[in-house]
Specification:
- It comes from Cypionkella sinensis.
- InterPro entries: PRC-brl_dom (IPR027275), PRC_barrel-like_sf (IPR011033).
- The protein is mainly beta and about 100 residues long.
- The protein has a single domain, classed as SH3 type barrels (Roll), CATH 2.30.30.
- It is about 10% helix and about 35% strand.
- The chain is built from 2 helices and 7 strands.
- The N and C termini lie far apart (about 30 Å).
Length: about 100
């Protein structure tokens, strides 16, 4: 996936309404998780990413600061994120309990 033409989100766009259910991709462009919940907004936003599992079963929620993600909109306006973390690195984080 070529992210060079995607528009980065502004701090004002870092809200639950925009980020909920956004897919997160690793450096090799494979989907490694999905944002399930947002804490805060703007520059002080943390997101819960559901990592692993299959068809929603066995996923592990982990908490990550948005500054660890490149959040953007594609040509169709769909929000997604890219991170340098691997799926295994995210799965190694402590489980987040809402």
């Amino acid at each position: 996936m070529d992210h060079s033409k995607h528009t980065p989100l502004t701090h004002a766009e870092l809200t639950g309404a925009n980020l909920q259910d956004a897919p997160i991709y690793g450096v090799d462009d494979s989907k490694i998780g999905t944002i399930s919940h947002v804490h805060g907004s703007g520059a002080v936003t943390d997101v819960v990413i559901d990592v692993g599992g299959f068809l929603g079963l066995g996923e592990k929620p982990v908490l990550v600061s948005v500054d660890q993600l490149n959040l953007m909109r594609d040509e169709n306006g769909e929000v997604h994120g890219v991170t340098s973390w691997t799926k295994d690195q995210l799965k190694a984080l402590p489980e987040h309990h809402h």
